[in-house]
Protein: DUF6545 domain-containing protein
Organism: Amycolatopsis xylanica
Amino acid sequence: MTLSVETIGVFCMWLVVLVRFPQAIRDRGQRPLWVSVMLITVVTTLYMEVVQTALADLFGRYATYLGTHLVTVVSAAAVLRFVLIANGHRKYRHWPYLAAAITAGVVVWIYVAVDPQNPRPGHTGLPLGYFFLVSGFSVVALTACAVVCLLGARRMDHWAMRWALLALALGWLANALPWLLNLVWLVTHDPRWIAWFSEIDGVAAFGIAIGAALPLIPDIQQRVRHNAAYRRLGPLWRTLTEAAPHVRLARAPMARILPAVPARLPLYRRVVEIRDAIVVLRSYVDAGDLDAAHADVERRAVPAELADASVTARWLAAALRHHDEGDPPAAQPENIAGVGGDDFEQEVEFLLRVADAYDDGLARGYAKTGENK
C-alpha cells in the first residue's frame, strides 16, 4: 500500500495535535493556536476521499456534502479568530463568526432550495454562487490567517517561534489554494486545475504540522534544563533535608515524567525544600563560622560571581557539623541565606552554584575554624 503525500501530511497533523494537547491544557496562551490547528486538521481529514466515502455511506451524500461545506465555513472562521487572538488582535475576534454565520445561512438556504439529489463535486446542479460563497470565504479567511502569521513572525525574537509562524503562513496559503483552484475549475470546466489537489493538501498539512510542532522546541529545552537542574540539586537536597526532614513536602513521583505536568513543578518543590532547610540550618552557625567562611573564600581567590554561593556552601557545611554534633540552635540575626536572584531561574542558578561549591570537597570538610579536616 502506497501512502500519498496528503495522507502522510494529515497523519503528521494529527500527531502534532495529540502531542501538543497536554501543553494546551496547562497553558492558556497556547490554546488558540492548538484549537486552530486542530480545526484545520479536522477539515483536511473530512475532505480525504476515503473519509468522504465513509461519511456518505453513514449519513448519505446529501447531508455529507452540505455538512462538509458548513464545517468548512465555520472552521475557517474559527481558525481565523484563534489566529487573531494568538497574535494579539483580540478586538477583531468576533468578526469572523459574524461573517461565517451569514455565509452559512445563505449556503443552507441555497442548498435546501436547489435540493440536489446526487451531490457530487462539479455535478450537483448547485448555482456557481454557492461555490463562490464556500470557496471564497475559505480563501479570504485562510489567506488572512497567513497574513496575520507573517506579520507576527516579524515580531518574534525566538527563532523557533518565528519559523513556526512562517511555516503556518505557508500552510494556510497552501490550504487556501485548492479553494481558489476549485473556483477556476468550475468556471473553466478544465480538470487540470484540480489535478494536484491531494499534493497541495499534503504540502499544506506539512506546513501546518511543522508550524505547530516548532513551538515545542523551547518547551522541550526548558524541560531538559529543569530536569538536569533537578538531578544536580539532588545530592545537596538529600544532605540538607536529612538534617531537616520536616521541610519535605508530599512527594509526587510521577510528576516529572507526565507530559501534562511542567518540569518546573518538581524543580520548584526541590528549590523550596532546599531553601527551607537552609533557613533551619542557619541557626546552627555563629559569627565565627561566617567570618571563617568569608576568609576561606578570599584566601582561595574564588571568582566574584561564585563568592556568595561558596560562602553559603561553607557555612552550610559548618551548620551541618554543629547539627550532627548535637549543638543547640541559636537565633541568627543576619540574613545569611544567600543571594538567590530576582526570579526562579536565577534562584535555581544560585543553588546550583551552592551545590557545586559544596560538592567540591572543600566545603564538605569545612570546620568552624575555616580549616579543612
User: Anything to note?
Assistant: The chain has two domains: 5-214, 221-358. The chain has 14 helices and no strands. Confidence is low (pLDDT under 50) at residues 367-373.
